[in-house]
Amino acid sequence: MIFNSVLSTTRPGGLKLLTVGMLALIVAGCSTPRSTLVDRGDYIVDTTHPAKGQNERVRFLILHYTALDDARSLKVLTQGQVSAHYLVAKNPPLRDKKPVVMQLVPEDMRAWHAGVSNWNGRVNINDSSVGIEIVNLGFTDNMLGVRTWYPYNETQITALAALTKDIIKRNNITPDNVLGHSDIAPLRKQDPGKLFPWKRFAEMGVGAWPDDATVNKYLAGRQPSAPTDVLTLQKALHQYGYDKIPQNGELDKETRLTISAFQMHFRPTDIEGNADAQTEAIAKALVEKYRT
Ligand SMILES: [Zn+2]
C-alpha cells in the first residue's frame, strides 16, 4: 500500500558497477590464471581473482496493492516519495500477445516501497528487495463495519506470474522470501490483502506453501478452529520470520495483527487473528519446511 510508508531517503552510494571502457588483456604466454583488466578512465581494475564468498544483493520479492486507480497509482509512484520497481495496471495491455508491465525503478537501484520492515532477522527490506505494486483498491468497509476485498483479475495474474518467475530466477530468491507488505510490516499494512492468490502462485513455483501432510501432523486431530496456546503460536511465527511478534503468551493487539497478516497469506478463510490450532499447524509446517 502506498500511503503511510515511513521511508528512508538514503540514496544507494558507491555500489553501481561501471562497465564503460572495458579492456581485456591476456597475460603473455599460455599460463593461467587469465588476467582481466577493466579500464575505468583514471584507473584500472584487475578482476582476475573473484571471491567465492558472494551472493545476490536482492533477497526478497515484496508484493503490494496500491489502493488507488491506474492514473493515481502511476502519479504517486513516479512523482512522490514512494516508488516500486514494477507497477502492474488494473488491466495490463497486451503487445504481441504478451502482457505489458511498467518498470519504474531499475532492479539494481533501491525503490521506496517497504518502509519500516522486518523479516527473519533482516530490517529495512527496501535495501534488499524488488517491489511490485499491483493496481487494486484493497478493501472498503460499509457503515456496519463489514469489509469487502477487491479481487485480482486474470490478466493481472498472468502478468504477475511471468514477472515474478523471472525476477525470482534472475535473483535466486528463495520461496520463503517472496512476501506481502503485510508480512514484513504486519502492524501497519494489509496489502496485498486476503484475496491475493498465494496458494495458486506457490503451485506455479512462486512463494512458500506448507505441505498438507505436515500440517495434518501438527494439527494432530484437533479441530482447525480449536483455541491453541498463544505463546506456542507466537514462537512458531517468530521462528518463521515475523520478528516483531511479542513473545508474552498474550493475545494483545500486536500479536493479533501479526497472526492476521499470517492468516491473510496462508489461511485466508479466517483472518480474525485468533490463535487457533490450524494457524499453529500451518506455522509449524512452514518452520519445518523452510527453517530446519
Ligand atoms: Zn504496500
From TrEMBL:
InterPro entries: Amidase/PGRP_sf (IPR036505), Amidase_domain (IPR002502), NAMLAA_amidase_2 (IPR051206), Peptidoglycan-bd-like (IPR002477), PGBD-like_sf (IPR036365), PGBDSf (IPR036366). Gene3D superfamilies: Peptidoglycan recognition protein-like (3.40.80.10), PGBD-like superfamily/PGBD (1.10.101.10). It catalyses: Hydrolyzes the link between N-acetylmuramoyl residues and L-amino acid residues in certain cell-wall glycopeptides. Its EC number is 3.5.1.28. The keyword Ubl conjugation does not apply. The keyword Zinc-finger does not apply. Residues 46-193 form the N-acetylmuramoyl-L-alanine amidase domain. This is N-acetylmuramoyl-L-alanine amidase. It comes from Symbiopectobacterium purcellii.
